Amino acid sequence: MHPNSQYHQYLQQPSLSGGATPNPLAAVLQSAGAGANALSQQYSALGGNQQQQQQAAAVAAAVAHQQQRQAPVTAGGGDPFAAYSALMNSNPAAAAAAAAAQNAMTSGNTSMNFPFLQQDHQVQQKLAQLDEEKIYTLVLELLNPSLREQALLDLSKKREQYEDLALVLWYSYGVMSVLLQEIVSVYPMLTPPTLNGVTSNRVCNALALLQCVANHNETRTLFLHAHIPLYLYPFLNTTSKTRPFEYLRLTSLGVIGALVKNDNPEVISFLLSTEIIPLCLRIMETGSELSKTVAIFIVQKILLDETGLYYICQTYERFYAVATVLHTMVNQLVETQAIRLLKHVIRCYLRLSDNPRAREALRQCLPEPLRDTTFHAVLKDDGATRRCLGQLLINLSDGSMN
């Protein structure tokens, strides 16, 4: 049985005396209706608190609903819809309250109906404001030599959380000069190689902030026009295989990688004028797997640009330098089976095959492991790279392209 069924039956039962004795619960509800009328008028008079008005309207509507249910009893029966209409006509406050409650329920005002959501939004805004203030404080601390090392570390950790950090770094007075000072201060430790882990970590944090500036659309061109990438080339030119130097080269490559990943022709032209390719080729040949991956990614991006492809294939010496390093990498991959590197190697060869002179040369010097089934197992789950390799072999087949 429904929990309110007895209550419902009590409201609906006829008077034992044929309508002479009023239902006691109806009298209580009638009294409550008068109270609701006064309550609604009191909250309406306030006028300034919408949430309280809606709450009062909801209470009045509930009372009006109960009055509607007991109206046939006090009226001695009849059409319940007519009784409800009569109740609304005789009690304007109840009608207004019911309309206000309906509007409150259908208005879609989430912040009023669910105030905790509004509070949560305000908390999030406050936290974002505190984070932004923390960023500004850390940027100012870069100007203080005694606080700079920790500020570099903290900002490098937050560079992915604050999207406008690049703008703050670039336009804050003295900050870019401080970052360049951090880089230049390491030069004496490159030859002879005396760079230690602590110093390497510190300069790499500065490089991470430069990468943030290089990656931002509004500061990338300014970064190039200031020729800041040139300050990184001494790091790329090192050959020491110790961990501090490897970390330094990898982070420096990350800055160049951030520049080329957006396929900007201006970036490619700048890099070609600075002889970045020989530096990347050396790392592709002798660096760690991760450094090789970033270096060949940069070379691949240069090749994908028409100017870059023309530059590399313009002379035999440039093409031979690139093809020789790629050939060495293929021989190394036969042993290591590093799928990430192999993808980039195949795509570099495929792009070179788009140039007629390079295509003719590749027909003679393409490594044999790319022609046979040496890498079939490692590429079995990589359909895209298999298609690239297949297209490369088609391009190099005699008479396939004019």
Automatic annotation (TrEMBL):
GO terms for biological process: mRNA catabolic process. SUPFAM superfamilies: ARM repeat (SSF48371). InterPro entries: ARM-like, ARM-type_fold, CNOT9. GO terms for cellular component: CCR4-NOT complex. PANTHER family: CCR4-NOT TRANSCRIPTION COMPLEX SUBUNIT 9. Belongs to the CNOT9 family. This is Cell differentiation protein rcd1.
